[in-house]
Amino acid sequence: MNIDPVENCNHLECIRCGRCKNACPVDTISCGIKNREELIKKVIKNAIAYITRKKNRTFIIFVILTIVLSCLYSCLTIMKSSNEIEKTLYESSNSSISIIKKDGKYFNVNQFKDIEKLKEIEEIIIQYDGLAKLKGAKVVSGEQKINREDLSDKFKNVVSLEATNNTKRNILFNSEVFTIKEGKNIEKNDKNSIIVHEEFAKQNNLKLGDEVDLELLDTEKRGKIKSHKFEIIGIFSGKKQETYTGLSSDFSENMVFVDYSTSQEILNNLENNKIANKILMYSGSLESTNLVLNKLKELKIDESKYSIEKDSNVFEESLESVSGIKHIIKVMTYSIMLGGMIVLSLILVLWLRERIYEIGIFLSIGTSKMQIIMQFIFELIFISMPSIISSLLLGNVLLKVIVDGFINSEDSIISGGSLINNSGFMLNIVALGQSYLILISIIVLSVVFASSLILIKKPKEILSKIS
Length: 467
Hints:
Structural class: alpha+beta
Strand content: 15-25%
Distance between the termini: 19 Å
Largest sheet: 6 strands, mixed, barrel
Order of helices and strands: HHEEEEHEEHEEEEHEEHEHHHHHHH
Number of strands: 13
Helix content: 40-55%
Number of helices: 13
Shape: elongated
């Protein structure tokens, strides 16, 4: 009897009994299928038939795939959550790039108009610091450590003034040294707006909606500008670290914040002549900030006169904890992938040895090795489908266990709530989908590895091993 089968669709001699395929007692023997759709249908049918017959083996594979998928899902969810936390940390750290004049004086803002073209910059804040004399109101008095008898009248009853287009970004408010008690922060589109300290408001019987009359002092020209009335839109509280110069403006209670655009109108500075003490630029990530820093160097700013600094120390300190978690999770993910592939490959090698007769018959009747491998892959994919639901449940349990392990460590500054809360529903679904794709890759690699140990042999060699 010839071992190699006759390649004829009308007649296929069985290598086992020599009878025609039409009367062959072996169910697995069939004519070569040329139609691709029929081939896939047959492969799927054979795969389903096998996993429904071998229920014990199917259950064991199901448990293994569920464990692997659950671990992958937990790790990827934490990694994605840590990315969101990293972004949130950067935003809350108020990291920025600043431009200031080295001699501490004012400078013309218009010379830096090109920074608006940098797409990595999400927000630009222009800051003007100065003094203003109160009209119709009194400053809050306090214990002054420096007494100056040479003060002229224009420097008496003065407050320190900061003009900005976003007080929320101000370091005093961002660090919660100052907190808004009533009203709101100054924002970009606000006009004729001011926020004052609660002690100042109490002393002068002021409330939201009342007006404060200020006369801005142009200290560089040693002159004064006409007074202007600002509407109170916010009242804050708090105490900053005070530097004493002998002026009433040294006290925290005598500090006010006004909108930048109105301050420039009062100073009679036209669009091209606006002045500032500092320009702050904010980006959405550390990478974008570094990119902005490099592009600023290309603008050929005179570094002998101006200082360009990046302030991201708070973020970098906080990032250490997040980076440590990300590294551990990454190692765990790779370990799970490698471990899952090894375990799955070993089990498949053992089981394929038991299916050696089936493989030999397939090969001897002209079934391609690719078709055999596809059947094995489909078998595992069908088994893995129900594991998606069970992995979602088990994965969330593992997620809580892993997170609890991190937050209980002494060096952790991140709360478990932040890690879990940052993993929203859509984020979990995406993580589960990516985990399943990784699982499919593990299945394919494991099947190819395990099958190659047997499929490299010829059908005659395989069948000769059947007892």
